[in-house]
Amino acid sequence: MLKRKDVNVMCDVVVTLPETIPQERADEFFSVITDFFKLKFCQKDGVKFNNFIGAYIHKDETLTQKELKCSENVICARYHEHFSFVPIVVRDNGQKRVCANDVVTLKLLKNFHQDAEKYISEHMNIPISDVGLTTGVSKKIKQYTGGKRGAFTVPELRELTELSNYLKSENKQLKEQNELLQNRNIELQLELDKSMHALKIWQHEEDITPIFEDVMTSL
Fold first, then answer.
1. Are 75 and 132 found together in one domain?
2. Cα separation of 24 and 39, whole Å?
3. Against a cut of 0.90, is the pTM above it?
4. In the listed set 98, 118, 150, which residue is the last one of a domain according to the structure?
5. Which of 32, 76, 89, 210 could potentially form a cystine with 102 if both were Cys, beta carbons 3.0 to 4.6 Å apart?
6. Do 183 and 144 fall within a single domain?
7. Are 120 and 29 in contact (CB under 8 A)?
């Protein structure tokens, strides 16, 4: 494979058991969704790749009521699965390469949830409306992954992340500079108040009005 440090040699897809599917059917759901992921990421045109790493179901992770916004005063948990694979793509010449950008494409992401719902509905024999994978997805996609475009590519996300980190750093420096300027302004104001107070005392002890008028006239 390519000896490059920026090659993503593994991808991990995380899917949470939808609230619309009861936990007693969790194993069935994860079995079906695993088959769906294999169709999407582990084969092309009927040719299977030896790139499947594993499908790991987590049932022992719990979240508090506040984290999951549960209505009942109990510790809640939702089962979820990590599907891991090596992103292999087949070139026109038949050569296999590792390239996450060509596997996890914008076209795939746009219809990914809808395609998964259809597959689960057919293989679990339940209505699409009861699958619940696309609940809130459109809004989240617009909010986090590029608005009407649906999603950013990996290089675009990397560039945006670097830009975001740079702007955060600049903003932090500006805040620090602003605080220094505000503190310096307070110090100068205190010095000015002291000077004005000393001037008033001096004026009271010695009448300098004629001298002050002469100075102002010369200015």
1. yes
2. 25
3. no
4. 150
5. 89
6. no
7. yes
Distance (Å) of CA 54 to CA 22, 45, 149? 24, 22, 31
- pLDDT tens across 1-35, in order? 556 777 788 999 988 888 888 888 989 999 999 99
Tally the domains of the chain. Answer: 2
In this structure, is residue 2 part of a structural domain?
no
Q: How far apart are CA 146 and CA 150, in angstroms?
A: 6
Q: Domain limits at 129?
A: 11-150
Alpha helix segments (H runs only) across the chain: 26-41, 65-68, 100-103, 106-124, 137-144, 154-205, 209-218
Query: Is 134 among the domain residues?
Result: yes
DSSP code at position 191: H
pLDDT tens digit string along 131-186? 877 654 544 444 444 444 445 555 666 677 777 777 788 888 888 888 888 888 88
- Token pair for 72: 């009942």
Tell which residue, 111, 110, 102, has the closest CA to residue 149: 110
